[in-house]
Amino acid sequence: MEKILIVDDEAFIRENLERILADDGYRPFSTDSSEEAVRRVSEEEIDLVLLDLNLGHRSGLDVLRELREVDPEVLVIIITGYGTVESAVEALKLGAYDYIKKPFKADAIHLIVKLALETQNLRREVRHLKREGSAQFGETDMIGSSPQLLQVFHQIQEVAKHEHATVLITGESGTGKELVARAIHQLSSRKERPFVEINCGSLPFNLLETELFGHERGAFTDAKNRKIGLIEESNGGTVFLDEIGEMGLNLQVKLLRVLEDRKIRRLGGVRNIDIDVRVIAATNRDLKQAIDDREFREDLYYRLNVFPIHMPPLRERREDIPQLLDHFFKRFSREFNKAIRDVSRPAIDLLMRYHWPGNVRELRNVVERICIMHNAEVITPEMLPREIWGGPPRREVPFSFEIPPEGIVVEEIINQVEKDLISKALAITGGNVAKTSRLLNLPRGTLRYKLEKYQLAEQED
Question: What domains appear along the chain, each with residue ranges and CATH number?
Answer without folding.
Answer: 3-130 (3.40.50.2300), 148-312 (3.40.50.300), 315-383 (1.10.8.60), 395-461 (1.10.10.60)
